């Protein structure tokens, strides 16, 4: 039995929306919980878009996000698919290992606790 493309199926192997997988969310939510316990963060939001997924963290609900944790699979072979972006748009850390990228925010937790 052979398979032929009929044109009705997308030719791209990328999904229609980029999303965080369960393991990725576990790593992010672990950091989020520690930051909430330290009183640094109060709320979060998750956006799944065509080219990227974003986990935004807020100090207060009605503010702009303090940080955005972005996943861009198209950058996997370049700068890395994960990035931490500050409120002003500055990229604080980028790479392919989510736990390593999030360490830039864990340093802020260490300062908050001291």
Automatic annotation (TrEMBL):
<dbReference type="Pfam" id="PF10984">
    <property type="entry name" value="DUF2794"/>
</dbReference>
<protein>
    <recommendedName>
        <fullName>DUF2794 domain-containing protein</fullName>
    </recommendedName>
</protein>
<dbReference type="InterPro" id="IPR021252">
    <property type="entry name" value="DUF2794"/>
</dbReference>
């Amino acid at each position: 039995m052979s398979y032929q493309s009929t044109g009705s199926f997308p030719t791209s192997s990328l999904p229609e929306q980029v999303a965080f997988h369960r393991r990725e969310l576990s790593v992010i939510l672990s950091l989020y919980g520690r930051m909430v316990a330290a009183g640094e963060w109060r709320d979060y939001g998750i956006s799944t878009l065509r080219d990227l997924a974003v986990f935004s963290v807020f100090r207060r609900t009605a503010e702009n996000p303090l940080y955005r944790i972005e996943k861009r699979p198209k950058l996997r072979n370049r700068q890395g698919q994960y990035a931490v972006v500050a409120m002003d748009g500055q990229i604080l850390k980028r790479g392919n290992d989510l736990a390593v990228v999030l360490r830039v925010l864990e340093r802020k937790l260490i300062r908050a606790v001291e």
